[in-house]
Records
---
Amino acid sequence: MLRIAIQAKGRLSEDSLELLREAGIQVDDTKRKFLSQSRNFPAELLFLRDDDIPQAVALGVADIGIVGYNEVLEREQDVDVLEKLGFGPCRISLAIPKTEEYTGLEWFNGKRIATSYPNILGKFLKDNGIEAQIFVITGSVEIAPTVGMSDAIFDIVSSGGTLVSNGLKEVEKVVFSEAVVVGNRNLDEDKLKIWEQVKFRIRAVRESRNMKYLLMNVPNDKIEDAIRIIPAMRSPTILPLAQEGWSSMHSVVAEDVLWEKIELLKEIGAEGILVLSVEKMVL
Ligand code: PRT
Ligand code: ZN
């Protein structure tokens, strides 16, 4: 049995549950409890505040956990980052009032910086030889300069909208973060085996999310060109059509280059192009 800690309520909880669900680990989240056992997989979910996940995993209260990399860095617990998950992207940045002229990192010498990430900030300032005062607050960091609590802030930024609406500008991006899987350092063989299974499934889910299945009819003398446009995993599937001189070609293509590929395929005479979602993909 593998115990997986995920955020109970917050920005990462839905994506974490969805990823596990798509990986075939079903839990009854309708009556979300503190601890919920999967109906069909040897795993149980422990719902925690994100701040507590690195410590829970370090202590072995949970075997693995899904949490923002920012929390992993800040909590300085003995855990391993086992896998990056891609969702919850953000950065932790230094921001100052937009009316200030920013002259480089020295600007922060002698200043007071409000943050919920004192460890990451402390290390960054030390590494850069900056002497500033760290003022720890746990919420609404972005209002600190307006109310005179600090000269600057060090906080999570995603779109940047919160900074702008508080009259601040981002001047240094210090850490980039996304949701990651952290693991206890002393997992036994059974648990490691289950984690390997989970990892394999998570990768297949993530791989398939970015992929589309493409079907099209291609004149036989253009098949070589079509293969050059969409090389596929090994090679595309080619099936003869009833109509002489034509074949049906099947392949997968990454979504971010889909339109560009379709245009090239049309140029070489491909017809009846169908694009389908990929449910799961195992490489
Ligand atoms: O209750 P619990 O302690 O579990 O949750 P929490 O309130 O501490 O965390 P939560 O749910 O807000 O965020 C969980 C994780 O999501 C963070 O640790 C990050 O890894 C990640 N994440 C991604 C973010 C953001 N994007 C984000 N934008 N966390 C917070 N924000 C905040 C940001 O600080 C700003 O105030 O959202 C606001 C809007 O950001 P902009 O730049 O888009 O305006
Ligand atoms: Zn938190």
---
Amino acid sequence: MAHAIKQETSDPYMYQPEAETMPREQLAALQLERLQKVVAHAYANVGHYKKALDAAGVSPADIQSLDDITKLPFTVKTDLRDNYPFDMFAVPQDQVLRIHASSGTTGKPTVVGYTEGDLNMWSDLMARSMACAGARPGQVVHNAYGYGLFTGGLGAHDGATRLGCAVVPMSGGNTERQVMLMEDFGASVLCSTPSYALNITEVAEQQGVDLRKTNLKRGIFGAEPWSQAMREELESLFGIKALNIYGLSEIMGPGVAVECDVAQDGMHGWEDHFLFELIDQETGQPVAEGEPGELVITTLTKEALPILRYRTRDITRLNRETCACGRTHVRIMGITGRNDDMLIIRGVNVFPSQVEAMLVGLPNIAPHYQLVVSREGTMDTLTVEVEAVPNTPEADYDRIAKEVVHHIKSMIGVSCRASVMPPGELPRSQGKAVRVRDLRNK
Ligand code: DLL
């Protein structure tokens, strides 16, 4: 399908140019000053950190250089759960102005809190991120991230308002109405998960709306892994540029890192507010420059919930070269997936995003899929469920399935089965897509 991008060129417009292009030595000096403050703040005000630092034999005064961060213990998700709901907060309750929580499939959710200063900083960073991704003051932003305890909806909402955009607070769902309002209100920017964006394109097609003819210019997509192939698919279906945005509630929410409109090559992680490390998942040691590893983030300016060395479980690579856009902040080169989403099928590591990269673009297959893992005897088996594109004769399903199996074997190295279904059979995403159905413990 031919690309129909409505705005090819982009200027490197910046919301906070001084911060975004700060020379690296200056950035490092700022980071050290802020790191020392945040460690002292966490140690003095959070029981968990007092205990953890004492146990590691390290005191805030030991942080004399940025490298000293490795003396600090890691924070993991269970630390937040163990201190449910508010014991990780570093400020008195009456200074907390917002609470978000992640749903979590089992047990108690992970709870996060924000002071007025934190909300202000978040709005600024989201405004910065949206401008970096090509949004401009005065535009209409259609926000289809879920509103509620999830940080996506309100995070994007406050950022777009701060940037000076008119926000349409849609949240997820009611997709036919979303298509109508996106067209009628002339939205320039769509904020949603990539899987929900795909759902929107399908509903628009059913309604006879050609999204490429609307005013839409940018998609700011994130909150779940997505492949380059999916990016090309979305860019083509909407006639937009699609930019990747990253964040997590424990650290802030959306706006921790974002791709720039200029290079579209890795997400700028905002180093004046966060310190990024990449570690080997097994040893916890730093990986060599350019190697993949688990992203570890320290908040440098958060008041209500300072977090030291948070193990995100997200796998990526870092690039510290200055970007073509002029921004100096480190680039997070896409998220392959979370290490807890990685499937190990008969010894082969498989991320859903790798399978997605394979499937999207194969002829006769719609870009909807699910991976089903089951156990037969002692063997784990993977079945890839895909949908045929409309009007594919059922007699062809078997041949298509064989092609899928062949491609996955040759590209990823894992043997699987494929099940081709008629259009509309697989569940459609309303927010974060469920890519894996694990039947092994059922
Ligand atoms: O997903 C925050 C967010 C909202 C980010 C809207 C971007 C846009 P959580 O629900 O806490 O927060 O989930 C965080 O989602 O650790 C990653 O595993 C995953 N994730 C977020 N952004 C991306 C991305 C929000 N761009 C978890 N690519 C993170 C891949 C992502 N995975």
